[in-house]
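Backbones bend. To wit:
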Amino acid sequence: LGSCTVIASDKTGTLTENQMTVRALDVGGRKLAVTGGGLDSSGAFEDEGQAVDPEDGSALSTLLLAGALCNEAHVRWPEGATGKSSAQGDPTEVALLVAAAKAGLQRDALITRYPQVDQVPFEPDRKFAASIHREVGAQEKIVFVKGAPERVAEMCDREAGDEGTSPFDRLEVARRTDVLAAQGLRVLAVAVGRGDQAAQSVHGEFPLGFCFLGLVGMLDPPRERVREAVEACRSAGIEVKMVTGDHAGTAAAVAAMIGLAPADAPVIHGNELAGLSDVELRETLEQSAVFARVSPADKLRIVRSLREAGEVVAVTGDGVNDAPALKAAHVGAAMGRNGTDVAKEASEIVVADDHFETIAAAVEEGRVAFSNIRKATVFLLSSGFAELLSILGSVVLGLRLPFLPAQILWLNVVTNGLEDVALAMEPGEPDEFRRRPRNPREGIVTPLLIERMAIAGFVMAAGTLGVFLLEGGAHEASLPYAQVAALTTMVVFQVLHVGNCRSQRHSAFGLSPFSNRFLLFGVGASLILHVAAMYWGPTQRLLHLEPLDLETWARIVMVAGSILVAVELH
């Protein structure tokens, strides 16, 4: 995830709040504003500031009736002044129930008057849902339909209005849809059909003969910090692409609100994708950031095309139909709150709070984790290389070994071990999320780091052998003291070198020692343990240690300081 170059994000619930509220209605070309928000049923319908009463049998009342009955959500209204409303189900359908309640139409009462006899559930390929009812005391079936405006419009041959029905103008409805979508509203169309023929038709591939009731515009506001998260991703070299099933105008408006794309940027429609070759699709993906009315198959094709272009792709999704794209991505990120079990099973990670900014933070955390693995690896390998060179150097020069086996074990397990574990707790460098993503084919240790490890290893080995010789390592009588001095030199070398390993790019002197308190504690603990072992009887006998005088300590500190100079110069 830390090396991803593209995040293909769904819009609803990830970039937006997924808290739908009906804000506008278009009934017969008459635009009505809807007041109130959330689960508040006390709002009203207004035409240019004047209240409108949804009279029984009017086009407005029928539209609200259709929204309440063609619905699988449930809202529990408060009992008494202190009660609270609660809702279960899809936020879009909850919003339709709340809008109907503002006209005094509640589903529990309506379903008793209009019992349901059949239904057609929503499918992405179908792009509409239908619910078939029969009014108590009547024989005629009533079919309520809601779905994508362009799909519902194909089913209609007339439109309801205040003066009855009128001929249906599909182009005019498309224009009215664009007006609502340009305001950032999610737009649904609602229609009604009557009789057995309509009930049978709705099960077919091309339903016809329905009456268009109007358009419903719902507001789903962008999340608070999503604009900053998108900008942070962009500065980190990560492209963010919105891939949504919503109307192109809605997608464009939301993309402009969150800074994903300019308001006049082209939006690629799902129908356009079908006519593009693989090469053309790849070029389109390079130029465009917003894709609307996209089917699950389109989303899967987008992900595969990005992968073939060499991108590292993270994909967000919540529905069953998102599973193929989630599975095909390098990192599938399912939504934890509203995501289906199928989406979660197909994903590598689950975003517990459904926020896009959490995904962006996870990318940064992935970078920090990899960087810390690299830092700890470089520290361990360079320290081990220094110990190896010290021993090989003493053999080549015909000297006694600078360390005893027990001392090497002490060095690696106790002093070195505390520091490398603490190094893995580095909080991350300030510019970690302002760098280009690393190449995923790049190994943990790069040629530059190999060069740095070699330099550090040679400096530490040379310094250790130098102190060993200065303290009489060539003489049998002073060998134990010289070995303790050599061991202590390597300990101090590693204490200073761990500061070098905190960053590949920045000076050790530019990093606050207090930004990683684990490391500060680890370094202090390793020094205290080593000095204590030199004075405590059991460890003196076990490790063949003895105290060092102040002159030796001064030489050790001066020699060990050379590691800072060497790495800073490099």
In short: The first strand starts at residue 6 and ends at 9. The CA atoms of residues 267 and 477 lie 83 Å apart.
